From TrEMBL:
Family annotation (SUPFAM superfamilies): NAD(P)-binding Rossmann-fold domains
Reactions mediated catalytically: dTDP-alpha-D-glucose = dTDP-4-dehydro-6-deoxy-alpha-D-glucose + H2O
GO molecular function: dTDP-glucose 4,6-dehydratase activity
The keyword NAD is annotated on this UniProt entry: yes
Lineage: superkingdom: Bacteria
CDD domains: dTDP_GD_SDR_e
Database matches in InterPro entries: dTDP_Gluc_deHydtase, NAD(P)-bd_dom, NAD(P)-bd_dom_sf
Family the entry assigns: Belongs to the NAD(P)-dependent epimerase/dehydratase family. dTDP-glucose dehydratase subfamily.
Record's signal peptide: none
Biological source species: Nocardioides pocheonensis
EC number(s) given by UniProt: 4.2.1.46
Protein name per the record: dTDP-glucose 4,6-dehydratase
One GO term (biological process): nucleotide-sugar metabolic process
Length: 334
């Protein structure tokens, strides 16, 4: 099977490539990645000689067209992915997430190539902390940020291409991922690398915001399950019942790293900050038989901390610039 992985030098995409090569001997992998600030070939170290790597933009038709034409499956991870960046400058989010998806869809349509679209639970907006309901495939779209609005728009494009053009596509909307090779701008790696550097972790607002954490390998196993068995045109929510508020996550990181559980700072809150995400993944579990393998968030987090401790050379080049950018908009409030 010839598989084109867009965004394969980013966090989830690179983990997908590593996992695919380890578990799918029939896969011939091509990675298409623009190597923005968020992508690095270092994330493909150890597998570079088993894949083809193409540096290019998913919104550039001349790059996308021949690569899609010679593929059996496209898995589209490439995106601008960080909410805070989308508040500072939404424009690359529109180009990559909307025009990029459109460009891939058109190529997949021309060549009748199977397409899987990677998306996020943030398209569903947020939930109250005490809401007994979780997101399902039927929850209406109410995205809050430029990032989540651009992902919502990309999902709508995929569904329209299925209905109007018969594109053979599936979609998945996953909750917050954690694991190795996640950029240090994101919540968990930012705090782990802060503690390693002797900087106090930074909590937005009151820190009671809840995220539904899933290990990146569980996400990627679910993606393969959907590629193998998913019904064309269907959307599957991916989540592993990992709800935890940010305050508790920071306290756990501090504890696992041998610090006081309250040794963190409160900083300026994110504008429009979603309160809570929670996924009901019953459809994926029941109809396709997927189950997560990481049952303990504590164990998965401990392994992730160990990865950042052991791989400083991977994250060090991005750390100072990331913190300098945050310093422009965030200050310690307590
Ligand atoms: P990431 O920012 O770590 O990686 C994105 C990758 O895409 C990078 O390698 C970057 O260089 C590449 N890229 C960006 N613009 C590009 C362009 N125009 N052309 C080609 N490549 C480009 O992101 P991630 O966290 O790995 O997220 C991957 C996908 O998963 C995204 O679609 C995101 O919306 C989705 N998702 C992420 C999470 C999460 O918790 N991180 C959860 C659910 C869904
Ligand atoms: O320093 C921080 N302190 C803090 O309290 C950072 C960076 C974040 N936060 C909070 C904001 C969120 O409530 O932690 C939570 C998680 O933040 P992010 O890592 O920025 O993730 P989130 O905004 O929830 O979005 C993530 O999950 C859904 C991914 O970045 C998206 O790509 C994905 O779609």
């Amino acid at each position: 099977m010839r598989i084109l992985v867009t965004g394969g030098a980013g966090f989830i995409g690179s983990n997908f490539v590593h996992r695919t090569l380890a578990t799918r001997p029939d896969a011939e992998v091509t990675v298409l990645d623009a190597l923005t600030y968020a992508g690095t070939r270092a994330s493909l170290a150890g597998v570079e000689d088993q894949i083809r790597f193409v540096q290019g933009d998913v919104a550039d038709e001349s790059v996308v067209e021949p690569l899609v034409a010679e593929s059996d499956v496209v898995v589209h991870f490439a995106a601008e992915s960080h909410n805070d960046n989308s508040l500072a400058d939404p424009s690359p989010f529109i180009r990559t997430n909307l025009v990029g998806t459109f460009t891939l869809l058109e190529a997949a349509r021309r060549h009748d190539v199977r397409y899987h679209h990677i998306s996020t639970d943030e398209v569903y907006g947020d939930l109250e902390l005490d809401d007994p309901k979780k997101f399902t495939e039927d929850t209406p779209y109410t995205p809050s940020s430029p990032y989540s609005a651009s992902k919502a728009g990309s999902d709508h494009l995929v569904r329209a291409w299925v209905r109007s053009f018969g594109l053979r596509a599936t979609l998945s909307n996953c909750s917050n991922n954690y694991g190795p090779r996640q950029h240090v701008e994101k919540f968990i790696p930012r705090q782990i690398t802060n503690v390693i550097d002797g900087i106090r972790p930074k909590l937005y607002g009151d820190g009671l915001n809840v995220r539904d954490w899933i290990h990146v390998d569980d996400h990627n196993d679910a993606v393969w399950t959907i590629i193998d068995q998913g019904r064309i045109g269907e959307t599957y929510l991916i989540g592993a019942n990992g709800e935890m508020n940010n305050r508790d996550v920071i306290a756990l990181i501090l504890e696992l790293m041998g610090q006081d559980r309250d040794a963190y700072d409160h900083v300026t809150d994110r504008s429009g900050h979603d309160r809570r995400y929670a996924i009901e993944a019953g459809k994926l579990r029941t109809t396709l038989g997927w189950t997560p393998r990481y049952e303990s968030f504590r164990d998965g987090l401990e392994a992730t901390i160990a990865w950042y401790r052991d791989n400083e050379a991977w994250w060090r080049p991005m750390k100072d610039a990331t913190e300098a950018k945050y310093a422009l908009t965030q200050e310690v409030v307590a």
